[in-house]
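Researcher: Before we compare anything, I want clean individual predictions. No alignment, no superposition, just each chain on its own. First chain goes here; please echo the sequence and then give the structure tokens.
Model: Echoing the first chain and its structure:
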Amino acid sequence: MTVPHDGLGRDRRRVRYPAAPGHRDLTELGPAPRVAVVGAGIAGLAAATGLAERGCTVEVIERERYLGGRVGAWNERLPDGTEVAMNRGFHAFFAQYYNLRKLLGRSDPGLDRLRRLDDYPLVDAHGRRDTFRGLPRTPPWNALAFALRSPTFRVRDLIRMDPRAAAPLAAVSVPGIYEWIDHLDADTFLREINFPESARHLAFEVFSRSFFIEPRRMSAAELAAMFHIYFLGSSEGLVFDVARDNFDVSLWTPLERYLIGPASAQRPGTVRFTRGVGVERVECEGAGFRLTDDSGATSSVDALVLATDNTGLRRLVESSPELGDADWRARVAGTAVAPAFAVQRLWLDRPVRADRTCFLGTGGLDPLDNISVVDRYEKQAAQWAAATGGSVVELHAYAVAETVPEPRERAAIRDRLLARLHAMYPETAAATIVGESMLWRQDCPRFSPGDFAPRPGVQTPHPRLMLAGDGIRADLPVALMERAATTGWMAANALLREWGAAGHTLHSVPAQGRSTFLRTLATRERQAR
């Protein structure tokens, strides 16, 4: 199920954002700036890395006991006492995630702890199946080939589409696309361009729900930007990497070792991690800040990066009345979270069929959104399966409820997920569930119509206070984990400019559509509207 790893990206047209010049080591100029990073998810870890590599003294404060945020991992015990790996579910590390890969490369230069999968199949309730295997890499031929070989998309469908109305899909510019169609929901937009309903359910619904939201509630601009990032704006393709082991083992423990190890020319600054502690309040103190945590302890820093989820950011700003101005505080207060989702991981006493794919996306099979056979790609799960003759299977239900439901409804959803698994993979119906973990969360940012313009950005009214995370505005074509990593690096760069230090170079897919003809058509359509 793997193909040779091909490095950090092959798209020659990816955009490079050069680092600002400046000092490479602030410790040579005097006492190192002290920076607190609140949140040890991808965004916080990127910010901490960027700052420490220029000589800052960084304290990363994390409420959880583990690193990685929504890509974190921990251990649980099965009823028989066996310790097993657990996390918040499957994550795809696409080749387009340049800035995330830059972060992971600090402790894994060859990205050897990632493994390339060769396919990403999708199936709907009628058994129709799409695949991304073997697609051409060059836009627009990649999208055209996918559409024409799809069982849900025919040549007549392509002819029936309204090319002028569909122009935003083919000629995305960031942030211009948000000014153009962010007022529309994705479902309405796809209907307006006559996109075939069957293909809409299988392809676009699968992708929109990966943003933890349904198409009728997702911004059309976000959908178009997503189409640009993964299809028409990039020649990296839609195959992706997965972590070879649980996220703590593959990703975050090695990065932590890099950050807390002895100072070096590459990382002259120091990093300290404080886990299991939440920051409750921030006060301005001269040019810097004083933090109070949930134990009542206080600390003073020269600068601050808030890299929490939207709920944590709202709570912290609300309890810190000295931060920002009225407009900025209103922007923070207006951030929202997507509907609740569930992850069900099952340890079964027998294997699934050998031809089952590592990952299967589903459409129209409510509440199921995908099935992962974890022991096919994750080392710890594979070892358990080999030792027991069983398998480790994971089910996702995105946007399954408006809020985390009551226990009775959670149990009903759990049973429906299990029934879907048995229908899709009949060999699991006779399996005994040796262990089960059902995780419910509601902490992903919302990307609904109108959310983009008021979304707070990395920089704030205070020159030494920065925000980072996948819910923070970034006027670059980035999404999901890559948005988190990008805003983390951007937060570090903005603070480093304050002290005259060199920044860090960033990359993205092109910020606008690759075709001059399609961009011209889109411009005319926009002007006509």
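Researcher: Okay. Second chain, same rules.
Model: Second chain and its structure:
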Amino acid sequence: MKLKISSFKEPKHVGVVTCVNWNNTEDVFSCGDDHKLLKWNLVNSECMTVATFPDDFYPTGMHLFPKINLGGNKHQHDVILVSCADGRFHIVNHNGRIEKSVSAHQGACLAAQWSPDGAGLLTAGEDGFVKVWSRNGLLRSTVIQSDEPCYSAIWSPDSNAILYTKGNFLVIKHLNSSSKITKWKAHDGVILCVAWNANNNSIVSGAEDGFSKIWDTFGQQISVSVKHDQPITSLSWSPAGDLFIIGSYNLLRLCNANGWSHCLDRPATGSIYSIAWSSDGTQLAAGCANGHVLFAHIIDREYTWKNFACTQTGRKVISIRDIITDQNDQLDYPDRVIQIALGFNHLVIATVKQCFIHKLTSWNTPVTFDLKEGTISMILLAERCICIVERAGISVYSYMGRLLASPRCGFRPETLGRAAVSLGPDSLAVIDQSDRKLIQVFDLPTGLIVRSSTDNTVTKLTHKMTVSCIALSQTGPLNERQLALLDYNRDLYVVTVKDSKAKFMKLGSQVLSITWSAETELLVGLRAHSVVAWCCPRAATQPDWLALTTVSKDISDLGRNPSVLSVEDGIACICRGNGSLLHVSVASFPEKLLKHVAANMWDAALQLCRTVEDETLWACLAVLAWQNNQLAVAEEAFALIHQYHQVFYIQHLRNSIPEKLTSKEAYSKA
């Protein structure tokens, strides 16, 4: 992954460009010391002067009103908030006319930002004050009074708290006065810029000491960058929270959410004072000291699935390769590609206007349908359907392009991260962003008859702790669909969604990441120094059985915040903290056994266990046979793992019930 950087040959600004911001995925506003507000169109490569402000207008920051309600007034969406060096902030309309000017601070007004819900705005100044204002520019409260300049202040994603800088300290102030202030020393130099991401709830800071650091909301350090030669002057999270960008003197660095670097560019621009991402997370704009506005596009994003590798080589070009046959194909699209998903024998490409669904056996005849809006944050794939998350809402399609469902979640879809939503073959699970203890599971139609969105059955599951990550199992019938979740204590639970009385069963603790196998009910999790496979998660009702059917393998040098990406044939693909991939065989034979059981091939399952002669494998067979009422198989398996009390119980069942009854009838009668 790297940045493809472009700019106009001659700078359109005279002097420093202090702030840039995106109006939509194709238009950028910029403002600088030449008092001009410019609008850039990336499709036509045009630049127009929107307005020329008075000579005493020196902007320090700019923020466009958040696009919350698509059905609202477009004029309202284009309102621009600009902070200036004379202590004022201005509310400017889309034509460049100043609607309102407010004297906010003594000295420069260094930061101004609309709240994420659009209900108000905050400003921070050289006088050390942080103030909250109404949307019309009326003062609500002075939140912070300090004796040090506040160089940056931002809202929390839920608009309930403010993060601000105080020298080399970071402070989180909750607007609810009963909550305690969180304050920690973050750098050795003055902190110049901060960013807080809604999807991963992480904070990144940059300072004069040349370091950028990632923090959680409790002030615990997640990662720290290498030392840069110059102060960090700007940084910004991508909307999805999987990347962030650092700007310094003649430097742009693209980093992963864990802090490791994807690429480093050294444009001859001087200091980069402002960086902004487009809403689709594929482009960024940067305001530079030499008057240029840089534009960058992410290319060389790579996706793999089995023997296929897909790479975005240009804005509209995708290259796909079959590693086994070494066959290469190049796919060209009419519009810019913004999202890619590869899996389940399909390649799904979303452009600004359309979605293309390719079968891996036929590239030239994709299924195509139009998108509601061009701001797509995520594409999820399952065996029978596709989930597209965009600002207009969540939509589920079949691989034939038929709209199956449009679930209504009750909150803004763009705030969903990948850990907060999971797609199964017949259901969609979402963590409620207003109450993260609540999980909503929507039933999806699987036939050709499509129900209206109001007919989607919703199952609501409430956990006792805040949920951080969810994952739906990918196999089995709907009434046996399992949901695995991680809470903020890093405890792993599993629940059968369709149980009349859903019970959360604990599988383990200190789990960092989880994923289900796409072909079986094998659940794999990652701990700090080991990878763990729960071969029979339903055995959690019996702690002894759970321990017997769990496989663990020690791994070293995983780094900070590793994650398990996928499981195939019992081999887990793990992304280390430094971004490198590691493949670990953790449950090859158990997954093969699970496939035999799913196909009702009990003789083959017995033969596999007798060949391998592994106690864990016999334990898995015993539990699976018992759950599927195969008493004869279960008796042999329990005997070989020395569970003699189970053997005696099975013999009792078989002897006390007439032989003419089937094993299933005997089990139910017992």
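Researcher: What stands out in the second chain?
Model: The domain at 2-299 is CATH 2.130.10.10 (Methylamine Dehydrogenase; Chain H). Additionally, The CA atoms of residues 237 and 244 lie 4 Å apart.
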